Amino acid sequence: MSQPTPEQVVLGHRAALNLVRERVLAFARTAWRASASYRDADVARLIALITPRVQAGQLQVAGLTSAYIATLATLRNGVLVAPAPVDRMGILDARGTPVEDVYRRPATALYTSLADGKSFGDAVAIGLGVLGVLIETDMQMANVRQARDSYISQGITEYIRVTSGAACKLCISASSGVYSSDHLMPIHPGCGCTTQAVTSGMKFTPKKSGQVSIRNHGEIGPMLTKPGNAFTGPSAYDASRSVEQLQTALDSLVVSAQKFSSVGTEARIAQLRAEIASRS
Predict the structure, then answer these.
(1) 116-139 burial by CB neighbour count: b if 16+ within 10 A, else e?
(2) What is the pLDDT of residues 104-160, one digit of tens each?
């Protein structure tokens, strides 16, 4: 039986990662859409339902990445290379933020959207979008962290970014360089890149398209951005709005809270009030 080529292994790995990611996303999206409401108890139930699937997916991605890197090493060296172990806590706690807090953010986005005058249906869709980004990012964080650990365990000192045919300009630009194995590969929301070890005699043709910056995100680690972009949150967003806009958002949220109260809603109301008071 003939052995697969490295190119076939890369393609198979990418397909396996995509399958895990899509299964977790499908489950989470179904659960989110099926919720009749999004009050505190509903959000807690959704978090308890979704996060175990996300964490199982993270560990599966890490295991697949470890096996992928070991397979390429086996083909390269001609001897069996065992997959590196998966650091369970290193994968699951990579953000350094409690998973319950991370996966409450879709609900916070929903409440904020209601405060901004969005319809309930639109607010639910916005929360769903945030949920999808979180899951995709957590899957890719597991991939790049395991890749780093696997390369270090094999004594590999450098690796390259391997893009797919549908790669974005950020990833194509970032694939023009070589990374040190003790550094995480920079990612971005929706990133589907993989890695490959740099070895002697390896042919590597850099690809260039546009510019890219690497910024460190407090939870995610190194991220690809367009030059000049920075990470912002509600505080930065509020600071860019007029007092009249903030008051309109506050009034809308207070009305919504009468029918749709939650800890997240009250926190957002307090945040808006504090921003308005700081302008007085």
Answers:
(1) bebeeeebbebbbebbbebbbbbb
(2) 999 999 999 998 889 999 999 999 999 999 999 999 999 999 999 999 999 999 999
Query: H helices of 78-104, where?
Result: 88-92, 99-102
**pLDDT < 50 positions in the chain:** 209, 232-234, 236-237, 240
The neighbour count for residue 235, using CB atoms within 10 Å, is 10
- Listed residue (247, 248, 225, 219) closest to 117, CA to CA: 248
Helix, strand or coil, per DSSP, at residue 192? coil
Q: Are 259 and 120 in contact (CB under 8 A)?
A: no
Q: How is residue 146 written in tokens?
A: 């395991």
Residues 201/171, Cβ–Cβ less than 8 Å: no
Produce one character per residue of 161-172: b if its CB has 16 or more CB atoms within 10 Å, e if not: bbbeeebbebbb
Whole-number Cα distances in Å, 116 to 6, 127, 235, 262, 272? 50, 14, 14, 17, 11
Q: Which residues of 76-103 are buried (b: 16+ CB within 10 A; e: fewer)?
A: eeeeebebbebeeeebbebbeeebeebb
179: three-class secondary structure by DSSP? strand
What pLDDT is attached to residue 210? 56
CA angle 192, 196, 199 (to 5 degrees): 165
pTM of the model: 0.81
Block residue for tokens 């292994």: 9
